[in-house]
Amino acid sequence: MAWFWLALGAAALWGFGYTINQVTLKHFSAVELLLFESFVVFSVAAVYFVWRGDFHVFMHKLANPKQLALIILSSFVYIVASLLILKSISASNAALAAIIESCYPIFTVIFAFVLFGEIQLNLISALGYVLILCGIIIVKVYGH
Known about the structure:
single chain, 7 helices
């Protein structure tokens, strides 16, 4: 059950971050904000690797061409997704952007099946996806 609390904590922090970004984006462009956030992430990760002494292990993992390709692709996906959500927050507000973005679990199930042949869906999670989709439709049809 720890996964649930970790995911909920991440959701709370993302909500907090989106709220801060809504204000920050009044003074900085999405690219400027992403650049600075990336620099902070890089700095923190670099200190972590030096402190833990795991940098050589990480570099060894990157020597695998398949793993390197996947991590590069994942990085580009996150860059584009981050820019899109920041632009969405700028164009609407943090709450509306977050509601629409919350449909990503539906795409996760689709991509997990298409790319890796994994079925990550059961009856309860399917019900959750239907509710997410209903919420997005309500916001789109009746929202701002």
